[in-house]
Amino acid sequence: MQPVKIGLRWVGPGQPSFVVAEIGINHNGDVELAKKLVDAAAMAGCDAVKFQKRTIEVVYSADELSRPRENPFGPTNGDLKRGLEFNQAQFAEIDQHCRQNGMLWFASCWDEASVDFIDQFKPACFKIASPSLTDDRLLRYHRTKGKPLILSTGMSTLEEIDHAVEIMGKEDLILLHCTSTYPSKVEELNLKVIPALAKRYDIPIGYSGHEVGLYTSLASAVIGACFIERHITLDRAMWGSDQAASVEPQGFARLVKDLRAVETAMGDGVKQVYSSEIPILQKLRRVKG
After folding, report:
1. Which alpha helices (H) appear in 84-231, and where do they start and end?
2. Under a CB-based contact definition with an 8 Å cutoff, are residues 176 and 163 in contact?
3. β-strands 173-178, 149-152: how paired?
4. Cα separation of 34 and 30, whole Å?
5. Which end of the chain is more exposed for a tag (fewer CB within 10 A), N or C?
């Protein structure tokens, strides 16, 4: 299985887990809040943060945008969607802030114009969200940028994933197992899909989790996930549709710390007697052979 290089890090079996804090829309349209989330991810030891980018009129129908939906930006769903989008100046500010923190950042782009928009910031990779897995044209367009791609597989059948992989090719591709509910039920996480995907495609497989709690992300790493993505928030009680399925800064710090401990504990698989065990052996073992 060929690892994938993101920035200066290799992602794949035998490598430390690549940990991504998904900011997504948890910034609530506030660039200062977005920068605080970047700071929290950096303090937690994350490898990268992720945003989202959409051309609203392309991604959503006029009927969907005009649908009534009370929110801080106005009375319609369109007001909400437009209010959550950052413009050129705001993303430039975020880009500068991430660079100052030594933090990689990238985005999931929901349309071709958004791919072009994010590409100007020279991201280390692109993320393709689960809803876009069946958008052949968008998959092909991402490939024109020559960057590593991370594809989430939530709400997708194996046949649909097969088709997406055929369209994109396996080079510099990471698949993320995912259940697209917010928050996800533990009984619907189906983590055993992770090694099944690795066997089926022979490429690095990761995990994008939306559940409450951290132990399932640790379990995903134990069974082979080499890329771990969780949403980050300053406070799970904040306004916003993704906040409740997110991890607060202290939780993210604990997740990264525990992931590193698990990676160390996994060892190399070669059975041995450690020198620290010898005094115990000499004291407690009655006979030898």
Report:
1. 88-100, 112-119, 136-143, 158-168, 193-201, 215-222
2. no
3. parallel
4. 6
5. C
**The pLDDT of residue 288 is above 90:** no
Residues constituting the chain: 289
SS3 232: strand
Strand, helix or coil at 148? Answer: coil
CATH code linked to domain 4-284: 3.20.20.70
Q: How many CB atoms lie within 10 A of CB 220?
A: 26
Tally of CA atoms within 13 A in the half-sphere of 286 that contains its CB: 0
pLDDT in tens, 108-155: 999 999 999 999 999 999 999 999 999 999 999 999 999 999 999 999
Give the pLDDT confidence of 106-116 residue by residue, as tens digits. 999 999 999 99
The residue ranges of every structural domain in the chain are 4-284
Where helices occur in 45-157 by DSSP H, the ranges are 56-59, 62-66, 77-83, 88-100, 112-119, 136-143
- Radius of gyration over alpha carbons of the chain, in Å? 21
pTM for this model (two decimals): 0.94
Tell me which residue of 215, 164, 162, 165 sits closest to 189, measured CA to CA: 215
Number of C-beta neighbours around residue 30 at 10 A:
14
Structure tokens at 146: 């020559």
